[in-house]
Amino acid sequence: MSHTADTASLMDAVYRNQRHIYDLTRKYYLLGRDRLIRDLAPPVGSAVLELGCGTGRNLIAAAKRYPKARFYGLDISEQMLETARANIEKAGLSDRIILVRGDASDPAAPKPLGITQFERVFFSYTLSMMPIWREALAAGLAHLAPQGRIHIVDFGQQEGLPVWFKALLMKWLASFHVTPRADLHEELQKLAQGNGATCSYKPIYRGYAVMAELRKP
Predict the structure, then answer these.
(1) What is the sign of the dihedral through the CA atoms of 108, 42, 34 and 59?
(2) Looking at CB atoms within 10 Å, which of 15, 56, 123, 135 has the fewest?
(3) Distance (Å, whole) CA 51 – CA 132
(4) CATH of the domain at 108
């Protein structure tokens, strides 16, 4: 079985039942998502892509905040996309949010959307779940239009939190196949240097999470 098929099967298994309560429970610990959406500020008429869109929660919030932008979501789990489609239809945004199934690490995955470049690309608590997350970052950069931005929020290394809390959190996250990326900052700097981009990286909530941004020249 291929990497993509393996990952798709795993994610479908993980979220087959969780997807029904995902948004209700995750709002308490997926911190910084709304801050990321506020920071997006896409230009009028621009295209925004979320890699790993899950239930569509972020896309719906962003589409409501920025009514003059177009939104697109990609996810490897058909289970999550099924929930996302229902949520988007319920929100009355089916004409402004388009979804496609695919592997975020595959540069060709967004091709069915009919768009080659996006002014904004974002990852919200997804890099920590992607087995080949470096490739996903590189693919995101490849999709980015000139002067575009990649926005990221994800789990940090909890460096400012008690050791016992970090140990418990890491163990709990591992049960959901989540691994905070200790070398995320280093990888972003490498991508920025190799592509003439600029990088910003900031721990939030005492390192519980991090927010990062790549700006393409």
Answers:
(1) negative
(2) 135
(3) 13
(4) 3.40.50.150
pTM above 0.90, yes or no: no
In 106-143, DSSP assigns E strands to 118-124
Contacts of 164 (CB under 8 A, 6+ apart): none
Report how far apart, in Å, the C-alpha atoms of 189 and of each of 76, 138, 210 are: 27, 12, 15
- The series of mean pLDDT values per 10 residues for the chain, 217 residues long, is 50 48 54 96 98 95 98 94 96 97 94 94 96 96 96 96 93 91 97 96 96 96
Number of domains in the chain: 1
| 211 bridge partner residues | 153, 202
Angle at 83 between CA 22 and CA 56, to 5 degrees: 75
Residue the block writes with tokens 């995750």: 26
For residues 139 and 137, what is the distance between their CA atoms, to the nearest angstrom?
Answer: 5
